[in-house]
Amino acid sequence: MNHLKPFVLLAGLTALFVGAGYMIGGPTGMLIALVFALGMNLFSYWNADKIVLRMYGAVEVDAGHPEPLIRAYVADIEDLARRAGLPRPRITVIDSEQPNAFATGRDPAHAAVAASTGLLSLLDRDEIRGVMAHELAHVKNRDTLTMTVTATIAGAISALANFAFFFGGSREDDERPGGLIGTIVLAILAPIAAMLVQMAISRSREYEADRVGAQIAGDGRALARALEKIEAYARGGAVNVEAERNPATAHLFIINPLSGPRANGGGDNLFSTHPATHNRVEALLRLGVSQATRGRVGTAVPVGDGIGDGRRIGPWR
């Protein structure tokens, strides 16, 4: 079911896209939308990771970076990838105050991971390792292709809905099945597409990535601490501007980056992109994966390198 579900979703999103083309341009519009959708699916398969990384301004980094923080980050991901039996992914950093991270790529051989500058600044080294192990678990579980392709298609549907508001609502063109009604329908399709994306990237994927990530890092408690810190900071007002502009990509991140949603006080929300953080933390603590990572306890930056006034000096300052 985990392999069948993404294909069903992609077919549904493609059908929505084609239907929107029909509402705007009739049979001709439907044919154009169908050709465009097929081309977009192929393009997304090969390039969705590049699109997402470019969307968030991700910058690739390596072990030769001048900042100790970044060098430690790179070294840890290389170590975690070896532990997971994965090829070394592309390692990137995005300039965002909000602490968060995601993984992308069509398969483990073409994967990339991204961490925000806010995450590298906020968390200690063990917690950063826990977060990035979670992202590598998505790569290992081959979730990343589904996550990036669905984000691309859902974003295109939203863009088409916006297009319809300007060009699809004319009552004078009788050949268009859309008109004003079509515009209203398309206005409804965009949130439906977003809902489909949320349902497709199921909460079980996040729980599974937490579990596998804890095994890779060797310390489930560090990931649990990281999730609590990220959740608190993200809900405290730190805005991810690019995520707010592209809400269809929210499911890519380890914690929902949008400012609107809030953590549940009880069970998981049926229509949320992520499980409630406290439920994830409880599940991690139940795993009993508690052995400390050897020689990596403490801050990601050696003492004396940017610590003085209580803030770390990162590569963006």
Characterise the protein shown here:
- This protein has 317 residues and is mainly alpha-helical.
- It contains ten helices and four strands.
- It has helices spanning 4-55, 68-84, 117-122, 125-140, 144-167, 179-200, 203-217, 220-235, 241-245, 277-287, and strands spanning 59-60, 90-94, 101-104, 112-116.
- It has a four-stranded mixed beta sheet with strand order 1-2-4-3, with helices on both faces.
- Strand 3 (101-104) and strand 4 form a beta hairpin.
- It comes from Caulobacter rhizosphaerae.
- Zn(2+) binds at residues 134, 138, 206.
- It is a multi-pass membrane protein.
Main attributes?
317 residues; HtpX_protease; Protease HtpX homolog; 58% helix; 4-stranded mixed β-sheet; 5% strand; disordered C terminus; membrane; metal-binding; Peptidase_M48; elongated; mainly alpha
Outline:
GO terms for molecular function: hydrolase activity. It is built from ten helices and four strands; from the N terminus they run αβαβββαααααααα. It is 58% helix and 5% strand.
Query: Mind summarizing the main beta sheet?
Result: 4 strands, mixed
Individual helix count? 10
Overall average residue pLDDT: 77
Shape: elongated
Q: Based on helices, strands and strand pairing, what is the structural class?
A: mainly alpha
Distance between the termini: 46 Å
Topology pattern, helix = H, strand = E: HEHEEEHHHHHHHH
Which residue ranges are poorly predicted, with pLDDT under 50 across at least 5 consecutive positions? 289-317
| Number of strand elements | 4
Helix content: 55-70%
Strand order of the largest sheet: 1-2-4-3
InterPro entries: HtpX_protease, Pept_M48_protease_HtpX, Peptidase_M48
Active site: 135
Family: Belongs to the peptidase M48B family.
Main location: membrane
